[in-house]
């Protein structure tokens, strides 16, 4: 008897040809990417076991599975492959639980594309979600199973609440549930929710970024009798392999940017033995990469003023690379100020990770802006332990960080924000300057700076609720940032599109051609749109570098 069926948002279950950042492909509007191209770039369907369970599952689902197994029997729980739901959803199934990241296609990256293409909420991530929900509801029709949705993307249902009825959810759960999932499932199955343990409603944040609780009968979250978050010792280890070898090294961030909810979560550092144990689970399934998830890797057991703990980081990475079967590893997120301020430590960590021309370390970094004023106003701690002023401008710090990263074969994936509170036209042109300077810089040995940059736009909730977005969300200076970003991305796609592809010869040729060609076409599309808006294209191309030579050191940058 399968009492509980766990399913993941299908866009989180594909490999996307193992090309860096192609995981964001589903964020693109359906009308912008033909279905054949989308399906090819997604890659083969994820493998299934003979009984219909998925071989690999996103980390959130594996954590939920582990939590349920602390109380229930193995045969009562199934992590189902999306193509084999009928194998598990039967008359006696009690709960179907789905984890999601961006179900309605209104996440930051997805909205960034709407700003360019306009139209209805019809990104591929939304199309795939609708398809999955339709399939689940067809299979469970006439059965007693209740449908619950959770995961980091459920905030979208607080904005477009009527979508809950459309999909026939019984509950939407908001928050972390590692310690209380068995109780939650038991109570939902029996229809007897203990209001002391679970509240009907969700946690949100007001205009001053203060935590508030909104009452709503279709939402469940942690009640007042429980701590707001599980303690570290209450978070169980995964017991089956996760997608792309992901394991968690810490939760929370603490850096304190005023636009980010993650910073409000308490810091919890996983001990090395837990991380190694989960990596061993993945390695036993043939996974050779350890993907180390955190919201701020360099903050792992950090010191005062967010100074990195070199000893803790070195011990962690050494333990990771010593796991039998693990050949490579990379963190998910980290600040650029740490490579800038600690080049010797970065060299040491790089040696542990065995970086090189065929082993670049990808890491996502929120640079957010090229403006000193916006950086000091919205994210003053992100530069620590360096400071804007005594240690140079924000551009200086970012430049030095990328110099060190490129030298040591690290490739940061930057995100930028346009439409920030109190943003000026000059702020955005400073961001254009930063992109251009970095794009025209070189590290030791003439190696061009390796980085990607993705601009994101802050969209008012009223526009999201309208469900029909036009392309006038961007001002001319915002569009200048977009154009500068995609000019660089086109350069990167041309340079790396074939080198970093995966698979057989034909697959690599196809993927490389689509990546490099697609990057160029996207850049030309934005150039055309920007010119139509009145953006000075030549100014964007040369802004900040028109009088500078090749930049190969921080002193050269200062003179540029």
UniProtKB/TrEMBL annotation:
Task: Report the domain of life of the source organism.
Answer: Archaea
Task: Select a single GO molecular function from the record's annotations and give it.
Answer: iron-sulfur cluster binding
Full protein name: Radical SAM superfamily enzyme
Q: Which organism is it from?
A: Cuniculiplasma divulgatum
